[in-house]
Every structure is written in C-alpha cells, then in structure tokens.
Amino acid sequence: MQASSLAVLRCLLLGLLLLGTTLHAAPRYSPDEQENIRIYQAASRAVVNITSIAIN
Question: How big is the CA angle at 42 (ends 39 and 31), to the nearest 5 degrees?
C-alpha cells in the first residue's frame, strides 16, 4: 500500500472507533427528564415515546 492509502485507512479506522465509542455512551438526563421517566414508568408499561409524526 502507498503511504497515502495507509493514512486514509488509519483515519477511517480511527473514525469508526470514535463513532462506536460515542454511540454506546450512556445518556445523561436532567433532573426534570429523570422525573418524567420515573412517572411514565410508574404509570403504565403501555406508555410510548413518540419522537416524530409523519403525515402520508
């Protein structure tokens, strides 16, 4: 391999490593969000979180 190809490969591997690390990080919730989560979990197992609405 050429030196430039190795440099590109190293950058790609580093990027994948960093992406994988950040994707598996634990989310941090504010105290208000934590309280909302606690309330929803206590209220019903049937409650869902709708994150988007699409109209067809």
Answer: 30
